Amino acid sequence: MTTVADAESQARRRLAGAHAGSDAAVVRSGADTSTRRRRYGLAVLLALLGGVIFASVGIGAVGIAPSQVISILAKQINLPLPIALVAPFEPQQESVLTAIRIPRVLMGMLIGAGLAVSGAAMQGLFRNPLADPSLIGISSGAAIAAVTMIVLGATFANELYKQLGTFALPLVAFLGAVGATLIVYRLSVVNGRTVVATMLLAGIAVNALLGAGTGFLTFIATDTQLRNITFWSLGSIGGATWRSVSAIAPFVVIAIGLLPRLARVLNAMALGEAEAGHLGFDVERAKTVIVLLVALAVGASVALAGIIGFVGLIVPHLVRLLLGPDHRGVLPGAALLGAALLLAADLVARTVVAPAELPIGIVTAMLGAPFFLWLLLRDRRRSTL
Amino acid sequence: MMANWVHSALCACGVTVRLGSRSVLRDVSLEVRPGQVIAIVGPNGAGKSTLLRTMAGDVSPHNGEVLLDGRPLKAWPSVQLAQRRAVLLQDTTLSFPFSALDVALMGRAPHCRGAERPVDYAIARRALTLVEASHLEDRVYLALSGGERQRVQLARVLAQVLEPAAGAIDSAAPSHVPPRYLLLDEPISSLDIAHQHTTLDIARQLSREGVGVLVILHDLNLAAQYADRIVVLNEGQVVSSGEPRQVLTPQLIERVFGIPVHVLVHPLRGCPLIVPAPPIRCATSSPVHE
Fold it and tell me: Are B37 and B4 in contact (CB under 8 A)?
């Protein structure tokens, strides 16, 4: 009993001592190493993205050096450059850069950033590092809508094609993606609360149902339609134009801008939904906002570029390795790294078999899947130690 | 000092909770005032956790209501509520590899907008020190033992109710600090004997700073030593409540828990000391519950 009494009196002294102004002493011992690590890491990712952008706009059938890129851009916006920085360039380089490369790079950045930041948010929402946006029906909803347009569109959607031209398919795919997600979301609301486990199961069921529909449409498709379906589902950002970039940009920019604001809720949700609520966060609102933003951003991406796998799954993992698990780092970091990785994958896709192009989905899966396996095995080995 | 808190309390008023057709709680009333440590005891399935979760606002009662400082829980803005009461549930998990310090810092979330301030780090570290986990601060939470995790989670809820350092323990409590409440569901279930006592001692110390503590305990002796009042819950109803020596009688314990006990007097504290005295051949013969 004396030991208990001793322990108590020690505890009492500590509590009292801790109050005697010792907070100041604790502050200086590197209170914000994680904040510093986050800032440093984000700066590194930003630099990486910058490098990949210059590589992406410069490399291709027509090579453009970084100095030429700067000169062309300066000319475009009528910015006088110091003589030392001016590099001569061909008119052809200028038109390739402004009409092809820059829209393509912007498209790649938007899609990569949107997919990755959405993946990070989904992993936080489902409290599971294996979650990704396809869980809640986005891809399968877009797929069945796109395949319906490809197979049956000529018979019932002529007017739509006439009005929207090449945008008819992406628009319908986008509506399919958002519609399927809203169905999954509605199914998971029980007594006014969103049950995340139900959302997962509803997502699986809706994915299976839509997958069956897509399968049936594929079955009745003609050979030409089959080829179109295959290429759509493999994904490509090759068709990017200024118009398609401006169509996708609002959805992705909103998600990239707003999702990081939910970082602190997502951190608290790592403890559990009830715990996050006890810490004063509006968890229900956060869940709704996340699902909505992810549906819009990923829906727009899938609609314009097809299904590009693994970016949403792997990029958040990489960012966590680099910046730690705090969502204040993970969300913006995922946007930066997602943009960089998708650009790099696109660079590979359009150069390895030039002048032909690989579908970008193949590249991301071929690079992503082995990496993911390595990550999985490494974690398992660690946890069994 | 106490005068400011006379009208402050976290109060369950005639609360009834049903799960399906079964009443988990029936007309339960319970009040925690700043400065008190109240222990809830009772057999498994008595409704202890449901009562705590109802008082935390996670479970909405079918009848009755829960008031914090006279105002229904639902009427409190969530951040203000979180600034006043912290909750530690059983089996808290973590889904990403945050460090122990990160976890403790999460307790400061209702107190800071955006980035944590130095004072939040200081309070989180002080909370870790209190639970004797400051050496774990850089360790990944998921790599800690069960007892260490429980202490780090406790540090998190302590960080939520602890005040900034400057002279807060003095008799002249600053008037702007609202009454605070700490709800703990079996906070010592994974702890060794020394940490069980230090944890409950922290609860006592906090109560002296004006925090109302509600704690679910299984160990009747610890409840007797550390609680001002004990509430005995059985089959969803309060069967007894009051000071430990009034409540913990051999008759009541045998009736509620179905085990005969001797109640002695604690040699140092003077509080009840309960010694279980099951019949020798109880393993095969005695019905556990009437």
Answer: no
CATH match of B2-285 with 3.30.70.3270: no
Looking at every residue in chain A, the average pLDDT score rounds to: 84
Among B94, B115, B129, beta carbon nearest to A270: B94
Contact map slice: B 97-126 vs A, CB within 8 A: 97-99, 102-103, 106-107, 109-110, 115-116, 118-119, 121-123, 125-126
Closest Cα of chain A to B110: distance in Å?
6
Which positions in chain B touch A281 (Cβ < 8 Å)? 78, 109
Shortest Cα–Cα distance, A296 to chain B (Å): 26
Q: What is the ipTM of this complex?
A: 0.87
Query: Between β-strands B180-185 and B85-88, what pairing exists: parallel, antiparallel or unpaired?
Result: parallel
A interface test, pick of B95, B193, B269 with most A CB neighbours within 10 Å: B95
The pLDDT value given to residue A33: 73
pTM of the model: 0.85
Per-residue pLDDT tens digits for A121-157: 999 988 888 788 888 888 899 889 989 988 887 777 6
Domains defined for chain A, CATH in brackets: 39-384 (1.10.3470.10)
Indicate if the pLDDT at residue B281 is higher than 70. Answer: no
* Residue ranges per structural domain of chain B: 2-285
> Average of pLDDT values for A61-90?
84
| CB within 8 Å of A321: residues ≥ 6 apart | none
